[in-house]
Specification:
The complex is a heterotrimer. In chain A, 10% of the residues are buried. Chain A is 73% helix and 0% strand. The radius of gyration of chain A is 20 Å and the shape is elongated. Chain A is mainly alpha-helical. In chain A, α2 packs antiparallel against α3 and α3 (46-71) packs antiparallel against α4. By secondary structure, chain B is mainly alpha-helical. Chain C is an all-alpha fold. Helices cover 67% and strands 3% of the residues of chain C. Chain C contains 22 helices and 2 strands. The longest helix of chain C is centred in the N-terminal third of the chain and has 34 residues, at 165-198. Classes of the chains: A mainly alpha, B mainly alpha, C mainly alpha. Chains in contact: A-B, B-C.
């Protein structure tokens, strides 16, 4: 343990990873996911909506890493690396698509595209 | 495949090497009368049908090479004459060995199929055999003699009669003509029921093709169709009979069949009919359905009068002399089987009697002379069936034989008139033909034919053969009613026959040409399409310079030969009920089965045969006198006579008879129209209901999709909400379940 | 030399040859019409020559055993093999297929003027697939070919048909495909059953036959109806026939010829091979039902024919009627009926195929199929009319022509197969009457089917009366075409030309030959059909247990030698 840890402990903080339980991470993950979801449902701007999905994505990643640590194996971490890679590619694709859509209608309002109506 | 085909020449060669082999001996002494040892005929005995077949092929070649001469006729006459020679030699060879009866001459395998489930010694051979082999016994010889003889003569006649059609039509005519003779030969000579059926349907086809010879006339096409379909109805009965025969006896071949039949026939002779199985009693009834179709008996007779749409030689050969007697042949051939049935012969006799009377009444009221002859054929066929039904095969066959001559003669004479007067057949528009130059032979031979048909006593063969039937009917106590019907019919026959003669051939000279006038003056090479209706309008102005062209040598020769033939035929039938040539021929064949003893009857208090003889003479003379009084002595003009005055007195009867008792209309109303209507309903049901159901199945996925497609709003947020709701739901469910329901 | 010999005398060659030529055609350029046609003709004629080689050595006397059986162990884990073989029935139907091949190609010479490559390539692929169906001896292989025939015909109808072609093609495809899927379920059930008993997968016909026959009546019933679902639609049997008139009416001539000539026979072949061979007990149980359906079909479709105004539709419905006889013969379940039925498959292919050709020739000239618009063509086209009358008579079942022998045998088979009615009545006799066989049908069935013969005469003579006989009535007042819509069409002669006569003559000759001398074929059919009849009779005498399906593996009798064919993946044709 480093000095900083000791100092923090003296200040009343619990020791790192000593008292930080799985539940803490999951709560953070759930909060992130909830914010992303609410953002996705309430905002109309495509880019904002896309950012919200990213937020949910990372929430899931956080949960995976937490579980990975909890179970002491690397499966979840491996997953997250994959997810991050794909998310990067996806972001590039999605933003490109968003640009194309914007060029077509000069707006980023999601309700402008309803052609898939049944 | 190659080695399959190589069977054919091999088998043909084998057939050639074989002399007619005597079939496996039946070996049962009890069957002596039917299954006696067989004579040996030379191998060429079976070549008889090959001559018409060859002629048919040659005529086809003529058609292909567009021969525009009378070559097809020459080929036909020559080859048919050869087949007649073979028929005559067969007859001589057959009769030269009195004990030897049926020879089987194999040609090649047609259907030869082994259907046994297991092959062992204990079960009988289960083979379906129907080969091209010919069964030659006196009955066959008798039939083939007059079939080939008449065919030769009529081909000669047709060579002149059809001369306006030289070319494609001429080839087509003789092609079908020869095919007919071939089919008829298969029918009569076949040694099994299926070959008989082949001939049976084959003659039907030729009849169809020849009735529809003038195929541009809708009426001819309709008549051909009617004939074919009516015959098919009868053929269904026959084919069911054939199947039942096979199931019952395990064979269709005569030489294996008749020995088996003989066992049951003995039961019948001993009045133990009740012991004959029902199925065997049913077989002849089914055969009768076929016979009634082919021989135009009630209720299947309506096609024959319409069949007169064909050229007259066809009417003479097919629809008077030969094909329509096939039914009589069938009954005669299977006479022992008919004796095994409690009802078959009654059906035959009553069917014949009803037809004879019905057709005679219709014949009395017609004006078209060829149609009158057609109804007289139907009526005379009725006599033949009565003959078969009331006393045996000899009666029917005797009348077939004499009728073939005089009816062919009558038709050919009518044909000569038709040919000479541009298709005119209405007896109101023709009169006094006998006085015209060049018409002597036609009119004299017509008289001979009419005397025969009317049954003029003593000097005509028709009298003897018909009288034997009437006598036979009166001799049996159960069939006296039929005797009375036949007697009345005989009077009517004499009347309508001489009505034709007195109206057309004697009396004041008068004629109007028929509607073929324009065509016959037109170019002869044009073909037969000249019957097109539009030409009818032209005959009005052409009638002035119309000259009937008298028949040439071929027609006159044929008429003369036939007229002489009718007199010669007296010799074959004058002792009929018991003896004579025809009786001898029939009695030495399979048809010669002894009939059971019947209850003796008396007619007018005397011997039935003598009584019938006298009654027949009275009726024939009476009919002729009535015709003379009404139509010759009472003639006013060509179109009118004393008979017209009688018509009102008879009420609706003449009108009904003239319209053929509306039988055609009744059939149309009861059968054809409902069937036509039903077919339309079925077609719509097929489209709407059967196919509709299928389409409904096809529609179901689409309909289901239609119901849920509203969910796809296209708004991104709606999808997101539903997704979130879905996730929430899933999470809730998982939580509830994992908490064991104690959430 | 030996290798060449082995290649020539191998059954898959008949499938590969047309496919190879189809590939060659794909390599042509669109403009090379003559080359494409020549390749197509070669691709169909060479299989004919191949067939003659095979038929020349085929053991026609022992036609019940598979000849030239060849098994390539393809996918051992799943038990799927490329297995080919030929018995008499396969040989006859392959013969019909290869015969109709060049005829279809020649018939399309002037009718098809656009997109030649697509047309002929698919035509050849279709021929390869049809040959494959008849030669396959492995269920999966059979099913693959069976379904694959749909694609080429779908394309032929869809691209080259007449006005309503898309709907017809779609319906044809979906209808038959749906049924076939159920058939597949039935076939797979048998394979699964076999696997349960033997712990090894196989789809070999003979191995599965034994398994299937030992199933309980209840299982057999399910499998029977599953098989029938596909095969009855293919036949087509009333009431699942409605795709056929539509498909026929819209298909190009060659498509109709193949459809009527060969594709419908896949259904009857399937019934013969699988329903009768696999589940005899169910066949016995349902024979009267199927016979009644086929008789309804005979009369119902016949009457519908009678009121048609579209001549092609008339002939299409007549196929429904005719195939009814074929199915009736099959369910007579005796040797006569079965042989008659197989013969009927051939005969119907010849005569109805020819009728479709003749109608196609008229359509090429007049661009109409309506009986109201034309009539009396005997005057304008005597050669055509002669052929028309000839083939109509063959179709009517006139004795002396081919239709009669098979029709009579089908009806007679039904007539004689009645275990109860034909029990010998006289004292001193036991068993059946001498001409009867055990069976479930009887004379009433034959009589009912016999009325269909009258109806057949009615509608076919109606057709002749309208189109061949009567006063001449040509569509549009004259023959010929106002517009020149193809380089070849304008040169069609008024009556038939040499090419058209040339494709009709072999059919006519065969109709006559099979009508007058069917004995060689009947002889060759004897072993096959009596073997099936024996199986049926065995099942009749030893009925399988009914009721609850037997669950225990032990109750399934082991097949004779299920793996023997797989163990020897070489040609077994050396014994000829």
């Amino acid at each position: 343990m480093t000095d900083l840890a000791i100092t923090l402990a003296q200040a009343g903080f619990p020791a790192p990873m000593a008292q930080t339980t799985l539940m803490h991470y999951l709560v953070v993950s759930a909060l992130m996911f909830g914010m992303g979801l609410i953002g996705f449902l309430t905002r109309r701007n495509l880019i904002i909506m896309f950012l919200c999905t990213e937020l949910m994505f990372q929430a899931a990643g956080l949960a995976l890493i937490a579980f990975s640590r909890y179970h002491l194996n690397h499966t979840g971490e491996a997953f997250v690396i994959f997810v991050l890679t794909i998310a990067a590619a996806e972001a590039a694709m999605a933003l490109a698509l968003v640009v194309l859509l914007f060029r077509r209608k000069e707006t980023l309002d999601a309700s402008s595209w309803m052609q898939l109506k049944g | 495949m190659t080695d399959l085909l190589s069977h054919l020449p091999l088998l043909l060669a084998q057939a050639g090497e074989h002399a007619a082999h005597a079939p496996a001996a039946a070996g049962d002494a009890a069957h002596a009368a039917l299954g006696a040892p067989r004579g040996v005929l030379p191998a060429w005995a079976g070549s008889l049908p090959l001559f018409p077949l060859l002629a048919c092929v040659l005529c086809t070649l003529c058609a292909i090479f567009r021969v525009k001469t009378k070559l097809p006729a020459a080929i036909t006459v020559a080859l048919l004459a050869l087949s007649f020679v073979v028929a005559f030699l067969n007859y001589q060879n057959t009769m030269a060995h009195p004990g030897a009866q049926a020879a089987v001459v194999p040609l090649f395998d047609w259907i030869n199929f082994d259907w046994a489930l297991a092959h062992n010694q204990t079960t009988p051979a289960h083979v379906l055999v129907a080969n091209f082999s010919f069964y030659i016994d006196p009955l066959t010889c008798l039939w083939m003699l007059f079939v080939t003889g008449l065919a030769t003569l009529i081909a000669l006649y047709a060579s002149e009669y059809m001369s306006h059609d030289v070319g494609a039509g001429y080839c087509r005519f003789f092609m079908a003509f020869n095919l007919f003779v071939f089919s008829m030969a298969c029918l009569v000579m076949g040694d099994n029921l299926l070959l008989l059926f082949l001939g049976w349907e084959g003659v039907g086809l030729c009849s169809y093709l020849l009735i529809g010879y003038f195929y541009q006339r809708p009426s001819a096409v309709a008549a051909g169709k009617k004939a074919f379909i009516m015959n098919r109805i009868g053929d269904l009965g026959l084919s069911m009979g054939i199947m039942l025969t096979y199931v019952q006896f395990g064979t269709l071949e005569y030489d294996k069949l008749f020995p088996q039949v003989a066992g049951y026939w003995h039961l019948a002779v001993e009045h133990r009919l009740a012991e004959v199985p029902f199925l065997i009693q049913l077989i002849p009834v089914l055969f009768t359905v076929g016979a009634f179709g082919k021989s135009a008996q009630f209720p299947l007779y309506v096609w024959l009068p319409d069949a007169m749409e064909g050229p007259t030689p066809v009417s003479a050969l097919i629809h008077a002399a030969t094909m329509v007697t096939a039914g009589v042949y069938l009954v005669a051939r299977f006479f022992p089987l008919y004796l095994c049935s409690a009802w078959a012969l009654d059906i035959v006799a009553w069917g014949g009697a009803i037809t004879a009377l019905l057709a005679a009444t219709i014949g009395m009221a017609q004006f078209d002379i060829k149609r009158i002859m057609a109804y007289s054929t139907v009526s005379q066929l009725g006599y033949m069936f009565c003959g078969l039904g009331v006393y045996g095969a000899t009666g029917g066959v005797g009348h077939v034989f004499t009728h073939a001559f005089f009816k062919a003669l009558l038709f050919l004479a009518c044909g000569a008139v038709m040919h000479g007067f541009a298709g005119q057949l209405d007896l109101r528009k023709l009169s006094g033909l006998g006085k015209m130059p060049g018409w002597k032979i036609v009119s004299w031979t017509m008289l001979v034919g009419c005397l025969n048909l009317a049954g003029f006593p003593i000097i005509t063969s028709g009298f003897f053969s018909k009288d034997s039937i009437v006598g036979g009917a009166f001799a049996n106590a159960h069939t006296q009613a039929i005797g009375w019907i036949l007697l009345i019919t005989a009077g009517l026959t004499a009347y309508y026959t001489f009505r034709v003669y007195f109206r057309v051939f004697v009396g004041p000279k008068h004629y109007e040409p028929g509607d073929e006038l324009h065509a016959s003056h037109d170019d002869h090479a044009h073909g037969h399409g000249d019957h097109a209706p539009e030409t009818a309008a032209d005959h009005g102005h052409d009638a002035h310079d119309f000259h009937p062209h008298a028949p040439g040598w071929a027609i006159n020769l044929v008429l003369s030969v036939l007229a002489i033939g009718t007199f010669l035929a007296i010799w074959t039938v004058y002792q009929l009920p018991k003896d004579g040539w025809v009786a001898h021929m029939v009695n030495t064949s399979t048809a010669g089965a002894a009939t059971p003893e019947v209850e003796e009857a008396h007619f007018l208090g005397m011997d039935p045969h003598h009584g019938a003889l006298i009654a027949s003479i009275v009726m024939a003379i009476g009919g002729i006198v009535a015709a003379w009084w009404l139509h010759l002595a009472g003639r006013t003009t060509a179109a009118t006579s004393r008979a017209d005055g009688l018509i009102p007195a008879l009420g609706p009867i003449p009108n009904l008879a003239q319209h053929k008792w509306y039988v055609d209309e009744i059939y149309d109303f009861l059968i054809v129209k409902p069937l036509w209507f039903l077919s339309h309903i079925l077609y719509f049901a097929d489209k709407l209901l059967v196919d509709g159901l299928v389409n409904a199945f096809g529609f179901m996925p689409r309909a289901a999709g239609g119901m849920v497609r509203r969910q796809q709003t296209g708004v991104l947020h709606d999808y997101a909400v539903s997704m979130a709701a879905g996730i929430t739901l899933v999470v809730l469910v998982v939580v509830i379940i994992s908490s064991g329901g104690h959430f | 030399m030996g290798m060449l010999h082995d290649i020539i005398y191998s059954l898959p060659l008949g499938i590969v040859l047309p496919l190879f030529f189809a590939l060659l055609i794909c390599g042509c350029r669109p403009g090379q019409g003559k080359l494409i046609r020549a390749l197509a003709l070669a691709g169909t004629l060479i299989p004919c020559v191949w067939y003659l080689f095979i038929a020349g050595t085929f053991t026609w006397d022992h036609g019940d055993a598979d000849y030239l059986k060849l098994t390539y162990h393809w996918f051992p884990a799943a038990g799927i093999s490329l297995s080919f073989g030929a018995d008499t029935i396969s040989m006859l139907l392959v013969g019909l297929t290869v015969l109709l091949g060049p005829i279809c190609v020649l018939a399309s010479y002037t009718a098809i003027t656009e997109r030649l490559r697509t047309y002929y390539a698919w035509l050849l692929i279709l021929q390869g697939a049809m040959t494959g169906v008849f030669l396959a001896r492995d269920l999966i292989l059979f099913y693959t070919f069976f379904e694959f025939t749909l694609v080429p015909l779908y394309i032929l109808i869809n691209l080259y048909g007449s006005t309503n072609r898309r709907a017809a093609a779609t319906k044809f495809f979906l209808y038959t495909f749906t049924g076939s899927l159920i058939t597949l379920a039935g076939l797979v059930y048998v394979a699964v059953k076999h696997h349960a008993g033997h712990h090894a997968w196989t789809f070999d016909f003979h191995a599965l036959e034994a398994t299937a026959r030992s199933m309980t009546l209840r299982e057999q019933t399910w499998v029977f109806w599953a098989l029938l679902a596909g095969f009855a639609i293919k036949v087509p049997l009333f009431p699942v026939h409605t795709w056929l008139p539509l498909a026929h009416t819209e298909a190009p001539t060659a498509g109709s010829v193949i459809l009527a000539g060969v594709l419908l026979k896949l259904g009857t072949y399937g019934i013969f091979r699988f329903a009768l061979g696999f589940v005899p007990a169910a066949c016995i149980h349902f024979a009267p039902t199927l016979a009644v359906l086929s008789i309804i079909g005979i009369i119902y479709a016949g009457l519908i024919c009678w009121v048609q105004t579209d001549v092609k539709k008339l002939v299409a419905y007549s196929s429904v009627s005719h195939l009814g006889f074929c199915v009736l013969g099959l369910f007579a379940l005796n040797s006569v009926g079965l042989s008659g039925s197989v013969l009927y498959m051939i005969n119907h292919g010849l005569s109805t195929g020819a009728l479709f050709l003749l109608i196609g020739m008229i359509y090429e000239r007049y661009h109409t199929r309506s009986l109201k618009e034309m009539g009396g063509l005997a005057r304008a086209m005597p050669i055509w009319a002669s052929f028309m009358v000839f083939f109509t008579m063959a179709s009517v079942g006139l004795p002396g022509l081919n239709g009669f022998v098979s029709e009579f045998m089908c009806m007679f088979g039904a007539f004689q197969s009645d275990s109860h009615r034909w029990a010998a009545a006289q004292a001193g006799h036991t068993g059946l009457l001498s001409g009867a066989t055990p069976g479930e049908l009887g004379p009433w069935f034959a009589l009912a089917a016999g009325t269909g013969v009258i109806v057949t005469a009615m509608y076919l003579l109606y057709m002749l009366g309208k189109i061949v006989w009567g006063p001449l009535h040509e569509p549009g007042g004259s023959h010929g075409h106002g517009h020149d819509d193809g380089h070849a069409r304008g040169v069609l002669p008024k009556d038939l030309g040499a090419r058209e006569i040339g494709i009709l003559l072999p059919l006519a000759a065969l109709c006559l030959a099979l009508g007058l001398y069917p004995t060689p074929i009947l002889r060759a059919l004897e072993p096959s059909t009596s073997a099936v009849a024996r199986v049926i009779q065995h099942s009749r005498e030893n009925p399988p247990p009914s009721g609850v399906p037997a669950e225990s593996v032990a109750s399934i009798a082991p097949a004779d030698h299920p793996a023997s064919d797989i163990a020897h993946p070489t040609s077994e044709g050396g014994s000829r």
